């Protein structure tokens, strides 16, 4: 399973890239607003992210009609070669995805909450589909169960030709809130988990690792002082 970072914060991206395990970045309007981003600087900011991370960088179109989404999608894709246009699973979004995919523009269909939505995203030509896990948990439903259903359903069929340039559609486990979400997404066979930086850091940490390191260091001090 690949790791994407779900953020618009350049410092977080730069740090995660230095670990050598980051495969991509996902952003959305809320994440960009959180860092105090402005409309005028948005294209330049996406370009800066694309420079830091050479993998896919999802930038979201905010239009509501297919024509608006297509226009924004073309503009976003023109920023850098590794931009993926993020589009919500709606009727207008599906139509825009089909049009953009036919032009060779990769699309990540977001706000996916059901198997039918995921199947329609795949049929429309999406390169990625992003089922949300945590938002189901927020309403006391099992987001991991929904993720599992989507992975099974998509794996039942060959969507190789649905993706851009013959690439197969990949499932991005999104709205990840914990390391357990990451673990379960991997066990379920998700292709990618896009995680906030605080969760990515927790994936590295374990109390037994910390205890073992402290023990090794203490024993080495005995060697040094012998």
How does the SSE layout of this entry go?
Blueprint: E1 2-6, H1 10-18, E2 22-26, H2 29-34, H3 42-52, E3 57-60, H4 66-77, E4 83-88, H5 91-102, E5 107-112, H6 115-124, E6 128-131, H7 134-138, H8 143-155, E7 170-173, H9 179-188, E8 192-195, H10 197-204, H11 207-225
Parallel strand pairs: 1-2, 1-8, 2-3, 3-4, 4-5, 5-6, 6-7, 7-8
Helix pairs in contact: 4-5, 6-8, 8-9
Description:
There is one protein chain. With 226 residues, the chain is of the alpha/beta class. It has a single domain (2-225), classed as Aldolase class I (TIM Barrel), CATH 3.20.20.70. 51% of the residues lie in helices and 17% in strands. It contains eleven helices and eight strands. The protein has helices at 10-18, 29-34, 42-52, 66-77, 91-102, 115-124, 134-138, 143-155, 179-188, 197-204, 207-225, and strands at 2-6, 22-26, 57-60, 83-88, 107-112, 128-131, 170-173, 192-195. It has an eight-stranded parallel barrel, surrounded by eight helices. Helix 4 (66-77) packs across helix 5 (91-102), helix 6 crosses helix 8 and helix 8 runs parallel beside helix 9.
